[in-house]
Structures are given as structure tokens and as C-alpha cells.
Amino acid sequence: MALADFLANLEQLAEQAESAFSSAGSAEALEQARVEFLGAKAGQLRKVQQGLGQVDKADKPAAGKRFNEVKRLVEAAFAASQQRLAHSPVESQPALDVTVPGVPWRIGHLHPITQTIRRMQDIMGRLGFTAVEGPEIEDDWHNFEALNIPLEHPARDPLENFYLGVAGATSASPLLLRSQTSTVQIRVMEDCVASTAPGEDPPPVRVISLGRVYRPDTADATHYPMFHQIEGLLVDRGVTMAHLKSVLRLFCQSYFAATGEGQGEQVHVRFRPSFFPFTEPSVEVDMNWTNAAGQSSWMEMGGAGMVDPAVLRAVGYDPEQVTGFAFGLGVERICMRQHGITDIRALYQNDVRFLEQF
Ligand code: PHE
Q1: Is there an atom of ligand 1 within 6 Å of 276 CB?
Q2: Ligand 1 mutation pick, 226, 278, 283, 323, max ligand atoms within 8 A of CB
Q3: What are the tens digits of pLDDT across the range 183-221?
Q4: Is omega for the bond preceding 225 within 30 degrees of 0, making it cis?
Q5: Is the CB of 305 under 6 A from ligand 1?
């Protein structure tokens, strides 16, 4: 073989190899090109090298020298491409495809009961009622005794309450999960009396308490062993049933006006005679709400009444000086009525497909 032919072959191959290396877009493609051109057994350069034997004897040293130079150049081209890919972001990350649908952010929001509670606090706050809290584990005094619920009263029945078999609880003074938020009435009045200087009258009270209560009811569409109540208490000189009724009517009207579902709807409040040991007289509170479609019906909201003088006396207020009203309404009922929820259990199953709607 003539030297010129050998060299032409060699230069052409070098060109091909360099262009294959520099156009390789991934480590795999580069490796393929390396095997193709620089492969020790069957690479193209190896084949050219084998052709060296056919070169005319006199030209062999020149051919061999040029071969070694070219081989080094091709190896350098390979190394350069290796460097290029190692620092290339295209290699380490998939290409950005702006047409692929995005992953939407799921933005959380407040549970419907929490929304209801906040709205209630807001409305009652504007009526001058301060929100207070009490413990969910209560003693006999606050859940029953101070509320004028005597020892033999059926409300104390173990079938009606979650009594706790914990340290500190005895049969004479049991502990239980509170069955009503009226417990907070007692705590608030006790605190007021305790912070009053001897010989002075304890201050007027105007509070609401919103929280969980517990009763061993079997869960069904309208019952759940845990639910929420809003308790209101106002104690001052000259408080009457008329104050109670107007506060409740204002509360209901503001609540449903604020929902914004059906402007101009009419809300009425009605009292039915009832009995609670801690109020006298006592009433059941019903609310009538005419929705935007003109439909209306009465809904039971809870109990209310004038604080029994025996309760005022038990905590240190003088029933000859002050009177008070109290009410306790079901939070779930109002929330369900507002949203058209028909099964209370849906509120506590934590199914986001349900909760997301509110
Ligand atoms: N605590 C009563 C209940 O749970 C409701 C109530 C509260 C009644 C305040 C009168 C006054 O049924």
C-alpha cells in the first residue's frame, strides 16, 4: 500500500471519530463511539493499524509515526467529550417539557366545624361576649354538682357519660369527659368570685365557650359520641329572658346572613318550655330559617334559660343582686344546616373529597 493511501485513510478516520465524539449527547452514545473507533480489538483505528503491515517497507517508519500522532489526537478528542458531558446539565437532568401537565398544589383549609366555630366567635365577640375555654376532662363538681344536678339525677348515669378510670378519680368524686360546656359557666363564675376583694360584688360576666363534649351515643346520621357546643353566659343586674331571646335571634340572623347563601332570608327564634336543673325557667331553642328557595322549617338548636339561683349561689354570686341567662347550642347542627350536610359522621371521617367542598 502506498503511504499516501494509508495516510488518507487515517486522516479520514480521525475526522469521523472526532465528529462522532463531539456529537455524542450522552455517556452511552460516547461510549459507543469509543468502542467503534478506539476499541482495542475491533476498533476502526486498530484495523488501520493492522493495515500498517501492507505499507511499503521504506514508508513504514513515517506511517507508524503518523499513526501514533493521530491516535493520540483521537484519544484527546474522546477525553474532551467526556469532560463536556460530565459538566453538561442536559446529561444529568431530563429535558424540560413545558407541555407536560403540572402537579397542582393542594392548598389546605379549615375544617367546616372550625369555620363554624370561628364565625360564631366572631359574631358573639361583636355582641360583647369573650371566648373562654375549659378542660375536656371534668370533675363531678363542675359537670354536675355546681350545676344543680343532684346525685340521683339520671344525667349522671354511667350509660350517659364517659367516666374515666384514671388516677385521681374516686367513686365519690369521679372524673369524666365533660358531657356539656355548661361546666365552663361554673369555672368562669368561680374565677370571677375568686378575684373579687372581700366585701365587693363580683363583676358581671359575658362569655361564650366553644368546645367538644362527649356522650356515649351510638353514631348515626344525627348522633356522634363527640360533638361541639357553643355555651353562652351573661350575668349582670337586671338580665331577663327578653335579653336571652334577642341575643339568640341576633346571633342566628347574623350567622346565616354572614353565610351569604341567599340574601334576605329570614331567621326566627322560638322558645319551647323545657327543664334543665341549672336554669329556671328553661327552654328549648328552635330556629326557623327561610332559604333563598323559599323553603323553611324549624330546627332544634339546644337549650337555654335563666341561670338557676341555686347555681349562682353555689359559685358565690348573690341571686338577690344579679340574674343571668345561659344557652347551649349544637355547633354541628348549625354547620350541617348551613351546608346541607345530612350525616354528622361525614364531618369526622376525614375524607378530603368531602372536606374539600367547604
Ligand atoms: N347544657 C345543656 C345541654 O347540654 C344545654 C343548656 C345550656 C341548657 C345552658 C340551658 C342552659 O343539653
Answers
A1: yes
A2: 278
A3: 999 999 999 999 999 989 999 999 999 999 999 999 999
A4: no
A5: yes
For ligand 1, say whether the CB of 144 is within 6 Å of any of its atoms: no
Better-predicted residue by pLDDT, 95 or 185 = 185
- Out of 188, 229, 286, mutate this one to test ligand 1's pocket (max ligand atoms within 8 Å of CB): namely 229
Our answer on whether the CB atom of 182 is closer than 6 Å to any ligand 1 atom is yes
Whether the Cβ atoms of residue 125 and residue 258 lie closer than 8 Å to each other: no
Residue 147 exposed, middle or buried by CB count within 10 Å (0-12, 13-18, 19+): buried
Q: Name the residue ranges covered by the structural domains of the chain.
A: 3-86, 112-355
What's the CA gap between 8 and 14, in Å, rounded? 10
Q: Residue 340 and residue 322: Cα distance in Å, rounded?
A: 41
Q: Report the nearest atom of ligand 1 relative to the CA of 179.
A: 4
- pLDDT, tens digit, for every residue of 222-253? 999 999 999 999 999 999 999 999 999 999 98
The predicted pLDDT at position 122 comes to: 96
Q: Which three cell numbers stand for residue 218?
A: 351510638
Give the pLDDT score at 264. Answer: 44
pLDDT of the residue at 86: 82
Q: Which CATH number is correct for 112-355, 3.30.930.10, 3.40.50.1110, 2.40.128.110, 3.40.50.1370?
A: 3.30.930.10
Ligand 1 contact via 304 beta carbon (within 6 Å): yes
